[in-house]
Amino acid sequence: MDIDRNSRRWVDAYSPEGTLEQWVESMRPYRENVIFRFILASSFAAPLLEPLNHRIFFVHNWGDSRSGKTAALKAALSVWGDPEELITSFNATKVGLERMAGFFNDLPLGIDERQVAGSKQDFIDQLVYMLATGSSKLRGAKTGGLQSMKSWRTIVLTTGEEPLTTMSSQTGVATRAIEICGAPFENENEARKMHEITSQYYGTAGPTFIEKLLQISDYEKMQARLKEIQDKFTVQFPDKLGSHISAVAIVTLADELISEWIFEESSENSLDMGMEILDMLESSQEADVVDKAYEFIKSWLLANSVQFTDDARPPRYGYIENDTYYVFPHILEDELKKHDFSYRKIMRGLGERGLIGVSENKREKQYSVIKKINGKTTRFISFDLSKLNNEEETPPF
Question: What is the pTM of this model?
Answer without folding.
Answer: 0.82
